[in-house]
Amino acid sequence: MFKRTLATLGVVVLASAATGCSAQQIAAWVDWHNTDPAAAEAFAALPEVQQALADSVETNAADIPAVDAASGGWTAGNCASFADEAAAAGVPWGIFSGIAWRESGCNPNVWVVDSDDTGGGLVGFNVKGSLASHWRDLCGATTGNIRGNVPLQMDCIAAQYSQYGMSAWST
After folding, report:
1. In a domain, 122, yes or no
2. Domain for residue 74, yes or no?
3. What is the pTM of this model?
């Protein structure tokens, strides 16, 4: 319960910093989440709410490449546009859309290489060191095939979630 409350508090702090929501609106959502978390999270996952959040964050359009419908109909930077891919893979997007927003701004092409990470994608796959074999064995992901590959990323999310729950995303 403490971890969930802490995670919710983190989302609220980020939301207040990144959106045009007033303190009263955020407090009302937190109260709602405390009494009916499923309904509050379902509301937060609505495409129009996700779009409003995305619209409230300043981005340089050149930094977020759009992908045409032939690649699945999703658009980098628009969390709601990944819902069909998530559903096809069995990923509870109501949970993972928030993680994808935090980790990548819902951009499956994001990639970082630094002292403790090599990876990226929608939910921040880390394929550095021994983690490379974990993802390869779990879902076939490698540094050469995961970046921008939304179906593979969704398969990896589903496999990780199925086997380990939220532990990979709890920190």
Report:
1. yes
2. yes
3. 0.60
pLDDT band with cut points at 50, 70 and 90 for residue 26:
low
Q: Per the structure, how many domains does the chain have?
A: 2
d(CA 50, CA 82): 11
Residues facing residue 125 across a β-bridge: 120
Q: Coil, helix or strand for 112?
A: strand
Examine the domain organization and report whether 66 and 120 are in the same domain.
yes
Which helix or strand (DSSP H or E) is residue 62 part of?
Answer: none
The burial class, CB within 10 Å (0-12 / 13-18 / 19+), for 92 is middle
The H-or-E segment that residue 155 falls in is helix 150-164
Residue 56: pLDDT band (50, 70, 90) is low
Residues 159/139, Cβ–Cβ less than 8 Å: yes
pLDDT at 9 over 50: no
Q: Is residue 130 part of a domain?
A: yes
pLDDT at residue 169 tops 90: no
- Residue 147 CA, chain-centre distance (Å), reads 15
Q: Are residues 32 and 84 in the same domain?
A: no
Instruction: For residue 123, give both structure tokens.
Output: 């939910």
pLDDT for residue 22 = 58
